[in-house]
């Protein structure tokens, strides 16, 4: 079974070249993404046909859960389908169906390779029921946005801003993102009773004019070097708080992402996509059973 390992700002993925039409994808993801017994990745990406777009992308987290969307993953997916010839190389923009809706992408070519992709990430959503986040009283019934919602965890007073970019995000602003105990607090926020479908959690620091630093605990994956939807949610939350204008660079451990938002419409993200290596996986070696 041939595969390609790719990453977008350090957020890495395994893409199967010829996936079966049906498989136990949660189990496959857990086994293939394992960094000791499998290939190792932050997610498994599957390309499928689509009636609504050029292709459909499905993405599974290392714990087997399926994500609605992944901004870094969809850039890698774009590079893969164009360079492999699954889609005409001249196609631009490209339409990709995800569980969060149809995404529009503009590939940028250099020397015959897609190096960067601009992604229309859709409009942010703020209503608690759309994120979803279960808040009491008027906070839970309103249209949002909900800013600086207080939550105490292990002696940490969090002030969470809630944003959906097709998947849920809770954003907390700090003076020093690097010193925040993300490994301790992240999993507790992800699985807190506030979030019926769990949540992604970002801690954010303003660095300067139009520059933010963010660290992310991804739902179903844990700490990752970057998160595309997370960078967009961070941009939106920062603009709601008056910390940035319509454009910002979000610095994540794996590198920067450029985010644009006019305060009302769609959020746009631009970032790189890189091929790391190609290989061949023996399913039985990682415990994958033939699908029915």
Q: What does this 3D model show about the protein?
A:
16% of the residues lie in helices and 39% in strands. By secondary structure, it is an alpha+beta fold. The relative contact order is 0.17. It has 2 domains: 2-122 and 273-286, Diaminopimelate Epimerase, Chain A, domain 1, CATH 3.10.310.10; 128-265, Diaminopimelate Epimerase, Chain A, domain 1, CATH 3.10.310. The two termini are 17 Å apart. A hairpin with a 2-residue loop joins strand 12 and strand 13. The chain has 5 helices and 18 strands. The mean pLDDT is 94. It has an 18-stranded mixed beta sheet that branches.
Quick gist of this model?
The protein is 16% helix and 39% strand. It contains 5 helices and 18 strands. The model has no long low-confidence stretch (mean pLDDT 94).
Topology:
Blueprint (H helix, E strand, L loop, with lengths): L1 E7 L2 E6 L8 H8 L10 E6 L6 E6 L5 E2 L3 H13 L10 E5 L2 E10 L2 E8 L16 H5 L7 E5 L2 E9 L3 E6 L8 H9 L9 E9 L2 E8 L3 E3 L3 H13 L6 E6 L2 E6 L7 E5 L1 E7 L12
Tell me, rounded to a whole number, the average pLDDT.
94
What Rg do the Cα atoms give? 19 Å
**Helix amount:** 10-25%
Compute the number of strand runs: 18
Q: What is the structural class?
A: alpha+beta
Beta-strand proportion: 35-45%
Q: Tell me, what is the CATH class of the largest domain?
A: Alpha Beta
Oligomer: single chain
The outline comes out as globular
Just name the CATH architecture of the largest domain.
Roll
Tell me the domain tally: 2
The topology string of helices and strands comes to: EEHEEEHEEEHEEEHEEEHEEEE
CATH superfamily (homologous) name of the largest domain: Diaminopimelate Epimerase, Chain A, domain 1
Distance separating the two termini: 17 Å
Instruction: Report the sheet with the most strands, covering strand number, pairing sense and barrel closure.
Output: 18 strands, mixed
Runs in which pLDDT lies below 50 for 5 or more consecutive residues are: none
In the CATH hierarchy, the third-tier topology of the largest domain is known as Diaminopimelate Epimerase, Chain A, domain 1
Total helices: the number is 5
